[in-house]
Structures are given as structure tokens and as C-alpha cells.
Amino acid sequence: MSFMDIQNVVFTYPGRPPVVDGIDWQIEAGEIHCLVGRSGCGKTTLLKLAAGLLRPQSGRILLRDGELVSPGPQIGFMFQAPVLLEWHRVIDNVLLPVSLQRRPDARDRARALALLDTLGLAAHAQHHPRALSGGQQSRVALARALILDPALLLLDEPFAALDAITRSDLQDDLLAMCRQRGTTVLFVTHDIAEAVYLGDRIAVMHGGRIVDALQVGLPTPRTQTLRHGVPFNQYCARVHAAMDQARHAGAQTTTVGAA
Ligand SMILES: Nc1ncnc2c1ncn2[C@@H]1O[C@H](COP(=O)(O)OP(=O)(O)OP(=O)(O)O)[C@@H](O)[C@H]1O
């Protein structure tokens, strides 16, 4: 059984046509899947469905135990803006998911510090978020998403607001931490190169449907030099072409093809 099994899911906001229009998708444990598509095609809505924050009108989303997905400590989130609590120190922001359940103890604090250390932020643990750069704040948000060691991490364009160099550093941090922990990831992005760099598999979404899918056969662990190679650019061109084709075809295709 797959880690996550999305079965023929349809979701409609009131008074609108379906925003997610019959999606089937499976994610195996420990894989990183990227969802790419133009603005408004339904990516965030699908991510919220995968988190159990929205319920589909039809179809269902199962986790590996066969249970319907629901929000809980097994799922971590990270959004486009880091959304840190300004009045809390960095370490307390990282510990927030623990604090929502119980009072953090010494082990929790040690864990939070270890995460901050891995992300190069140990020296900032006692600072407030306003003293940190945008990239550092995003790292705090990543540490917070990982503090409960979630089996599934859902990320909605978490690095979109960062400059290119900081973004590529954070992509490497994310890959290293998720590979080490075996975290399964669903990552939403507009950025095709980001999807190719991070993804084991990419789903191209258009008009509420998955119109193409490809397996990314680049070597792991990924290194930034891959970006200059021919295979990397071929994958990017393939995703570009799928997005263009969907736009021109008006998303008539519902078939999911594998590379
Ligand atoms: N709460 C809501 N109520 C009504 N319509 C909504 C709501 N949230 C999103 N929509 C609509 O659903 C469609 C898909 O939105 P969604 O946020 O899932 O797209 P997206 O692909 O993530 O877009 P972006 O890349 O711009 O974030 C859009 O047309 C949007 O206007």
C-alpha cells in the first residue's frame, strides 16, 4: 500500500466549478513529489485536501494505515511566508507544535536546538524573528515543521519569496533533512527547476486535473552542479512542454502518463 493514496478526489468551493476535478495520485514512503502548475490551477487546494484540512466532496485520501487523512502530528506544514510569532524567541517558534500539545521539556528543547544547529541557526536560538533575514526565518519555519518528526511534510511554495542563492541552499537543507529522516514530501511550486531539482516525481496540474506526470531519474543525492547538465534541462523542458500543452488544449487530458 502507498504511503498516501489520493483516489478520484473532487473538491468544489461553493458556487464554483470544481477546483480539484478527479485526481488520482499515489506517493510512496520516503519519496519527494512536486506539484507544479500555473496560478489558480488548484495546487494549494489539493495540498489542503492532502492535509485533511478540507474534505473532498467525492473520492478519498488514505494514509498508509488505510485511515482517511486527518490533521495531526504525523503531518508537518510549511507555507510561502514563514509565519513566525514575532513575540516568541526563535527556539519557542520551533517548539510551537509541541507547545500546542503539552509543555516542552528538556528533551524537546535539545531537539529544537539540534535542528537549529543543523540549519546553521544555533547562535540565533534566543533571538526574536525580526532579527533574522528572510532565509533564516524560512529555516526556522522548516525546523518548526520538522520538530514533531512528521512522516509527511506538505510544503506550499515555501521558498518562493527568497533570492535564488538562499533558495538553493534551503532546497539542499530540505533534501538532506528529509532523506535522513525518511520523510515523505509533497511540495507545491511554480518553479519548474525547483520541482526537477527536488522531486523524485513531478505532477503537472492544470484546471484541477493532473495532466502529466514524470519520474525524475537524476542521481541522488542531488547537487547544484546537476542544474548545468543536459538531463536536468531536458526534464525542465519536458515539464514546460506539458504545461504549455495543457494550456493550449484547455486541459482536455485526464490521463496520467509516466516517463
Ligand atoms: N476559500 C476559497 N473560496 C472560493 N474559491 C477559492 C478559495 N480558495 C481558492 N479558491 C479558488 O480556487 C482556485 C484554485 O485555488 P488554489 O489556491 O488551490 O490554486 P493554486 O494553484 O494554489 O494557485 P497559486 O499558485 O496562485 O497559489 C482559484 O480559482 C481560487 O480563486
UniProtKB/TrEMBL annotation:
Any single Pfam family the record assigns to this protein: ABC_tran
Keyword line: ATP-binding, Cell membrane, Membrane, Nucleotide-binding, Transport
Species: Pigmentiphaga aceris
N-terminal signal peptide: none
InterPro entries from the UniProt entry: AAA+_ATPase, ABC_transporter-like_ATP-bd, ABC_transporter-like_CS, ABC_transporter_ATP-bind, P-loop_NTPase
GO molecular function, one term: ATP binding
Family as reported in the entry's similarity comment: Belongs to the ABC transporter superfamily.
Keyword Secreted: no
Ranges where the ABC transporter domain occurs: 4-232
SUPFAM superfamilies: P-loop containing nucleoside triphosphate hydrolases
The protein's name in its UniProt record: ABC transporter ATP-binding protein
The keyword Electron transport belongs to this UniProt entry's keyword annotation: no
